[in-house]
Structure formats: C-alpha cells, structure tokens
Amino acid sequence: MQTYDNPLIARYASKAMSQLWSPQRKFSTWRRLWLALAEAEAELDLPISQEQLAELRTQLDDIDFKKADEYERELRHDVMAHVHTFGDCCPKARPIIHLGATSCFVTDNADAILLRESLILVRNRLATIIDRLGKFAWKYRDLPCLAFTHLQPAQPTTVGRRACLWAYDLILDLEEIEYRICNLKTLGNKGTTGTQASFLKLFNGNHEKVRRLETLFCEKIGLAPFAITGQTYPRKMDSQILDVLSGIAQSSHKFANDLRILAHRKEMEEPFEQHQIGSSAMAYKRNPMRSERICSLARFVMSLQTSPPMTVATQWMERTLDDSANRRLVLPQAFLAMDAVLILYQNVAEGLVVYPKVVAKNLQAELPFMATEDLLMEAVKRGGDRQDLHERIRQHSQAAALVVKDEGGENDLWERLCGDTAFSGIDMESALEPLAFVGRSREQVDEFLLEQVEPIRKRYGDVLYATNADVRV
Questions:
Q1: What residues are labeled active site?
Q2: For the CA atoms of the chain, what is the radius of gyration?
Q3: Torsion over CA of 409, 414, 416 and 420, rounded to 10 degrees?
Q4: Closest CA to 157 of 142, 170, 169, 168
Q5: E strands within 251-401?
Q6: Distance CA 152, CA 366 (A)
Q7: Do 336 and 285 touch, CB atoms closer than 8 A?
Q8: What is the SS3 assignment for 64?
Q9: Are 95 and 80 within 8 A, CB to CB?
Q10: Burial class, 73, CB count within 10 angstroms (exposed 0-12 / middle 13-18 / buried 19+)
C-alpha cells in the first residue's frame, strides 16, 4: 500500500485483459518468438539442432524475473536482459537465441500478437452488448416515448427504437474492429533498418531463403508480415487501432450520457443493487454510478488516441526510440480502459430498468402540442379555414404554455381545443393516441433486429453467453 496501484488493474478491467498485458504473457511471448525464429532457421538448414530447439521448448513460461531485472540494471537493455535470462536456463541453445534478429523482432511481433488478441476480446464484448441491446429493443419496441432534438421535446419515438440507435453505433464499431483484426499484420523478420541484411548474411546471400524464412516464421505465429518496414512495424497500425477504440469509447459515452439524462427524467435507470449506496450524505440518492464511470473511462480512452498519431509523425527515417515509453503506456491502458467500459456497458444493458408510467406521463405532457398539426389537417378536411384554424391553435398553445411556464400548472391545451367549436365533431380522444405519432418506429425495430442484429448473433454464437460483465467495484 506504499506505492501507486493502477486502478485499471485493481478496480476496473477484467482478469482476462489484465493477464493479456502482464509481464508473464509479454515475455513468454518473446520466448515463443525466439523459438519460432530458431525453428524456421533450422528448417532452412542453419546449424541449429533439434536438441537446442527441444531445450527452448521446455523453458517458455518459467521465467526468472528477478534475474532478468538484475541483467537489465546492468545492461540497460530489456531485450538483452531477457536473452541472457533465457540463455541461462537453456545453455545448449544459448548461442542461437535471437540469431539474426534485432530488438524489435521480439517487441513488435509480440505487440502485434497481443494487439490482435486484445481486439478479439473487445470484439466479443461488443457483439455481446449488441445482442443485449437487441433483446431490450424487442421488449420495448412499441412503448412510445418522447424523443428529443436539441434536447428539446420532438416527435415521439419508442423506447425500443432508441435502443436500436445505441446498438447501431456499436455495430458500426464492430465492423471497424472486424476489419482491423482481419487486416492486422506483423513486423516479421526485417532486421535493423528493414533491409534483412543480417539474415541475408546468415544465408550467404541467398535471397530466396531469406524470403522463405519470413514466410515460415509468420506462418508459425499466425500473422502476415507488412510488405516493407523500417526497423519497426509501421506505427500507423497503432494509430488505426486506437482510432477504433476511440470510436467505441465515443459510442459508449453517448449511450451512458443518454441514460443519465433519462434517469434524471425518471424514465429509465441503470441497475441498482439491494445494498448499493448512492450517496454518503443523501441516503435517498440513486446516482447513475455505472453510467458516470463509463463516461469517465471512455473520455480517458478518447484522450489516449492523440498519442499514436504524434508517434507516427515523429518516427524519423527508419525509426526513433521515442515511441517506446509512450507505447508501453498507451497500448495496454487503452485496452484495459476499453475493457472496463464494455464490462460496465454490458452490465447496464443487461439490467436496464424502464418506468413505463413515467414515460407515458412525460409524453402526455408534450403530446398535445405535437398533435395540433394532425388536428389542423383533420379540421380543414371537415371544411374549416386553414388560416383561421392555425391562429386558433396558436393562441390556445400560447395560453397553455403560459400556464405551464408561469404558473407551474398542467398543460391544458387539449382541454382548450376540445372546448373550441372550430374543432367540434372530431374524435379528440383518439387524436391523442401515442402510437399514432411514432411513425415506423416499431417496424424499424423489427427490420433492424432482423437485418443487423441477427447476423451478428449467428456469427458469434456461444461468445454471446460466455462473456460475463462482473463489475468489480
């Protein structure tokens, strides 16, 4: 308790994402990369024995971190510290570890592997939330509610249709993340400036063997190489990935903000547990803690997106090392924070609470104003003068608005209109039926679920039920 503890690990992110970016996972991946390189070199007839390869395979996960730290303090080089640590426990293979490679061989290829797996975790959470929002949209497809433009009352929609808006933002994000996973590449075996000169030397000028070496290695790790690089893979890839995460954060923030506003109106709430405390002072409070945390963490993810573009822009010539410390911070924390956001999002989506009577009450308070256009058309069809009717509605509306705003009274516009002989003969009761004002909301929900959500459910199947949303704090 005497040193800083990153809350992304201690409070927010899942165990799976935290382990993915752990030292154990990072450095055991380095060892697997060294093994894959040695295997490929042996297959192309470099003097590497099966005994040496077998020795490497026995020590992939048993890492002496204390010894590695001691080496790094002496050598001031993290990669060489782990080369020596690996070599100490594999004395027979020690001479061929890291053969022909530069530091970025392990750092960049490992990062590419971790980025891909992190993207998959995020993708699975996205698909799960889309499924949950789809279920919610279906349940409330025909519950009319007040819609808003400029945060002012506008033509009604339904609660289910609004949920489709939230889901569609995530579907667009899912398409982006699927594209990034499908097209993610790795460094491969490029050498100190990308020319593969060291490998060409190892193979006595045999260009075909150098090309074959990279192909074999990349097949072993399951990623295709970039066509051409400097010493590192193009930092453009980091920027593109952070763009995707920022997009998901934007969608999540929008959803959580909407829910906070709806909670203020007492129409909807996030789940609130039996013993949960909303405020240390105000015991009655039901603060939207989860939604507020989504917004807080989402802003953090969006802010991290600014670093990778600056790193891309300043990678002089074949590379500079001013990317290293920045990437150590930005890449893991962006995924840890994004993971935390989506855990919260799923938890909220699975426990959304709707108060239909409040929804109806709030809608009815504004509906008379919105119904006047239809009323005007009906009265004209019955022989009324459009301009005279418009003026009558305007005067009644202004008077009713004064009662609401100046006196704090109820909206009595409809009562005023019912008492005006210009509108006699019209069925004023049915003219205020809420579902008559929601347009194609219900049909659009049905179409959206069929055309957009169902294909995602089919693609991800069991993933939708294997992804939990346990909020840790």
A1: 150, 279
A2: 31
A3: 180
A4: 142
A5: 268-269, 353-354
A6: 11
A7: no
A8: coil
A9: no
A10: exposed
Q: What is the DSSP string of 426-471?
A: S-TTGGG-GGGGSTTHHHHHHHHIIIIIHHHHHHHTTHHHH-----
Q: Contact 59/32 with Cβ under 8 angstroms?
A: no
Beta bridge partners of 225: 186
- Say which amino acid occupies 150: H
- Nearest CA to 247 among 297, 307, 308, 176? 176
Pairing mode, strands 152-158 and 144-149: antiparallel
Model confidence pLDDT, tens digit, residues 246-274: 999 999 999 999 999 999 999 999 887 65
User: Which amino acid would we find at residue 177?
Assistant: I
DSSP 224: P
Neighbours of 275 (CB within 10 A): 4
Pull the structure tokens for residue 350: 């699975």
Residue ranges of the chain whose pLDDT lies below 50:
275, 277, 279-280, 283
Q: CB within 8 A of 4, min separation 6: which ones?
A: none
Q: Convert the pLDDT of each residue in 270-281 to its tens digit.
A: 887 654 545 445
Whole-prediction pTM:
0.89
